[in-house]
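[[Per-residue structure]]
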Amino acid sequence: MAKIQKYEMQRNHLWYEADITDEQLAEWKKFEAGEIEEPDWVHELDFDLVRDKCGNDDYEFELIEDD
């Protein structure tokens, strides 16, 4: 028996913000300039969700035939 497979992918868009100190700002600018590696403190920040956009579904169908 043949089948049709549906592959669905949903993508949401979320924007977060966190306050940083003047020292962190200076270090971040060095990172953006390629002078240093990404600072560890970035992953420890307390981010707040400030904006979101509902996802849209992208999908595709594939026919699966019996051999």
The chain has a mean pLDDT of 92. DSSP finds one helix and two strands in the chain. The beta strands are 3-17, 48-64.
